[in-house]
Amino acid sequence: MPKRKSLSTHQKGKWGEERAAFFLRLKGYRILEKNYRVPSGEIDLIAWKNGTLVFVEVKARKGRAQGTPLEAVSPHKVHRLSAAAAFYLAQRPCLPAACRFDVVTLGPEKNWAGLGKLRHFENAFSTEGFFNV
Asked: In terms of C-beta density within 10 A (0-12 exposed, 13-18 middle, 19 or more buried), how is residue 29 classed?
């Protein structure tokens, strides 16, 4: 029997982002952008719910060796997300001022379907890199 190819890191990231987008849609979010990229950084998902613009970082971990998915959102990553969000907002001056940063994690623990458990941390951090969770 031929050996199955494992997914690349990029493919795993895309898969995680698709699951996170689906999860957020179920929670009533409207996904506006996926993989928004500018020279200063990238935002995995940009969503809208109840008059609030939400910048979402998606992190997945297969095991505990690399730490938790939330621990992978470093101060450097927060800085890059903040810069990309500022660029996004500058390009769209008609958007309301209400916005926040969320993190969706796909952890190594399994849910009832045997898939990595999704967790949504609303308003997970401020633009100064301080976590609110």
From this structure: buried
Q: Which domain holds residue 53?
A: 27-62+93-133
Three-state SS for 41?
Answer: strand
**Which alpha helices (H) appear in 59-128, and where do they start and end?**
75-91
Q: Is the pTM of this model over 0.90?
A: no
CA-to-CA separations, 96 to 19, 26, 27, 82, in angstroms, rounded:
27, 23, 21, 17
Render pLDDT for 11-31 as a digit per residue (tens, 0 to 9): 777 888 999 999 999 999 999
Count the domains in the chain.
1
What CATH number has the domain bearing residue 117? 3.40.1350.10
